[in-house]
Amino acid sequence: MQVNSVTPEMTPEAVASNPVGGAAQPKLRSKAGSLTVSKALLGFSLAVLAFLVAAAIVPQWIAPYSPTDMKTDQLLHSPSLSHWLGTDQFGRDVWTLIIFGSRQSLLMGIVSVLIGGLIGTLIGLIAGYCGGIVDSVFMRLNDILMTIPGILLAIAISVALGPSFFNVILAISVAAIPGKARVIRSTVLSIRSRPFIDAARAVGTSHLEIMFRHILPNCFSPLLVMMTIGVGSSILVGTGLSFLGLGVVQEIPDWGYLLSQGRSYMTVAWWVATFPGLAITLLVIVVNLIGDHLRDWMDPKRGV
Amino acid sequence: MKKSWVKAVKMATILLALTLLLSACGDGSSQATQGANAAEVDSGPVTPGGELVFALGGIVTDDNLDAHKAGNAQNGRVMRSLYDSLVVELPDHSIKPWLATSWEISEDKKSYTFHLRKDVKFHDGTPFNAEAVKFNFDRIKDPATKASSSLNEIGSYVSTDVLDEYTARINFSAPFAPFLSNAAKVDLGFVSPAAVKKYGDKYPQNPVGTGPFKLVKLVPGTEVQFEKNPDYNWAPPTAKHQGPAYLDKLTVKYVPEEATRISVLQSKQVQAADIIPPQNLVALKADNQFRVQETELLQVNFSIYLNPQKAPWNDLKVREAVRAAMDLDAAVKTIYLGTSKQAWSPISPSMLGYTPTVENSWKPDAAKANQLLDDLGWVKGADGIREKDGKKLTIEFIDTQGNREKRLDLMAVLQQQLKQAGVELKVVSLPSGTYSERRLKGDYDLVAASQFSGDPDVLRQIFSTKGPSKKNNLARANDPQLDQWLEDGYLENDPEKRKEVYKKAQEWIIQNVYSIPTYVFQYSLASVQEVNGITFDSPGWPVFYDAWIKK
Question: How far is residue B160's CA from residue B42's CA, in Å, rounded to a whole number?
């Protein structure tokens, strides 16, 4: 991998294999104007995310109504002052449902990325550090997993295990493993060949210590970026599963379920499906924007 | 570049999100304009010919069009165009001739002798005769056939005697009152013996009947194409014309997704669609470009069955309390937007033997529910759910069908009503295998289902330990008195006496809360204004024989 390369066709693996020295791209954002825009976007993203996290933790303080309150005399009312985003087919307030549904969407995204990231990191670390046959075996298995689209893998797992919140998280986590494993492995490969590792080996440091004390901490920055962006795609996979009816039917529905149920009311009450759909889009965009900034911020060449 | 990669991922995720959203928006087509009631418009003289494309609400399960093996409602709706029956049933439950011109019932009520029409041919040119009747009934009885609902419909069938080429005597081991009504259904329609021998295991995808339409092509999982049977001249007396069908072609497309079904109809890519969701029904009815027809499907209503063999539901008082805690009228009005009514009996109102005496025999009464549960020692805990001896009053509702006909939505409303009374309803969605296993073991608190059928004898299947499902009857009822009535019901041939027996049975089922009926399903079919003459047979399947498209 060439440092300072400007080849546009860089693969994710190639990018990630240069966690420390790579990607010194032209600083497009150094112009004052776009910097302000990008800062404003970051501020907006952080504000939205903070709001959604708050909604996930204490929805009852934010939402104007109860999510289980079915007002049978107010079915499918269009957005108004009392119901900002209208009411659904049960007479529930859509705004309230979106606030209460954020917990499940965020949990799905974060927990599955943590699990997937943890397993992926372990696989990548072992494969990258051990090399040879271990590397080949792990990576070929990983390749097999990678050839299956994430959403398909998640659907297969959900169908096989049946719908439950745990199974959905498991399904998304498994779908998130291969990408992470591959990126970590390339990072490990590049770190392993650096002089301080040789030095550690020379003084007789054990393999485990080298792996976890010397190599792993150096993988954190690509890992953090990968995981942040991964949250967005995991939320999409999770809401996709709910949308397809493979999620859990709970008293308080998640966004994917709201979207799929609201879809059949589209011709008579567009707001029932549109707002949960917008909520998903917004969450995924802000998480990705934050991930993008995080990557810039962690870039060691930043500000050079 | 690292940058371009992140951008690509970002764009891809955003696009995915938008796609998800837009797929939802795709249905937003133009909405109803006000106009005269579609069905009342004068259609003028019949113009034969043309093709009708029908969007089927669901899929033809396994693409199975074998009258004897395909037990699902959607399959039945499609097969009605392919197969004819011995007799036809009118809405008042009287029986008229069809492929049989007349029949006699023996003294002991165990034998039926049918005199058949002599001019009937299968689509493959082979004649329909007494041998074909014998072949068909023997085929249903043969365990190797693995017949589905048609096996229940022949009851205690023993054999068929071929008396001459066009006379067949069908023998039963005991009187079987529902037989004539069952014989009018498509499940007992006639398949061509020659075709069954020719195609063997492939017959269900290569059906050959005597009906007004014959199969042209079956595209698995997608659609079934029919053309009119030019030789057809044996329409039942319920039909409005004789001779071949008016339509040249009939194509049935599987469109299980309801929003899609409505939008293909509204954009006129299809000329007719069925199972119109309530939220679209009102708009379509008001739109003079479309006409909407509705008919009550003869069936056991979608009902709630608390497991009476598991504590605490084995106590009648607890079952009564649960029923009193639910306001079904409000729930049904909310979910079906006033297009369906609350059901009071296990069976639908148009079925033989339905008794109006069960109507309003209970009412929503939160005070009574609370009182009953308080008296039994179920006390509300901190979370508002009642407890007794450390056990919560939780109803585990196992389900495998999902939100068909908005049934889970209905349960969601009931869930909130029950919560007010301190009863928790938990929906457990299971794959069908696990569901059947747990249901057969009785390892659940509540199941909910419907069962289509044209005759009240179906109650035996659901409530009797002596019925086809024995101890594993859906309601898990084990009640000798009820078993006796339901047995009397199918042995008794006099319709008036049968009605009396079924009246007692329905009242007993409701009194003992073996079943909590929910709503009466209205089968709906909408078509573009140009389509005329679609009718329904006795259990409520659509008939396209008289249908024509105005040019």
Answer: 48
- Give the ranges where chain A is alpha helix by DSSP (H): 12-16, 32-57, 59-62, 94-130, 132-147, 150-161, 165-192, 195-202, 207-209, 216-243, 255-263, 271-298
Q: What is residue A78's DSSP assignment?
A: P
Distance of residue A263 Cα from the nearest chain B Cα, in angstroms: 5
Q: Is the pLDDT of residue B489 over 90?
A: yes
Q: Which residues of B touch A25 (CB under 8 A)?
A: 1-3
CB contact under 8 A, B6 and A292: yes
Angle (CA) B25-B268-B223 rounded to 5° is 90
CB proximity A244 to B under 8 Å: no
* Contact by Cβ (8 Å): B97, B237: yes
Q: Exposure of B52 by Cβ count < 10 A (0-12 exposed, 13-18 middle, 19+ buried)?
A: buried
* A210 close to A171: Cβ distance less than 8 angstroms: no
What is the tens place of the pLDDT at every residue in B496-551? 999 999 999 999 999 999 999 999 999 999 999 999 999 999 889 999 999 999 98
Please state whether the predicted TM-score (pTM) of the whole model is above 0.90: no
The region of weakest confidence among A183-187, A242-246, B295-299, B459-463 is A242-246
Contact across the interface for A263 and B2, Cβ inside 8 Å: no
Handedness of CA B437, B442, B444, B450 (dihedral sign): positive
Task: Report pLDDT for B239.
Answer: 95
Interface check A78 vs B, CB under 8 A: no
d(CA B380, CA A127) in angstroms, rounded, equals 56
Q: Does B429 sit within 8 Å of A266, measured CB to CB?
A: no
Can you read off the two tokens belonging to residue B154? 């022949």
Percent of chain A residues past pLDDT 90, beyond the cut: 51
Q: Fill in the DSSP letter of residue B307.
A: -
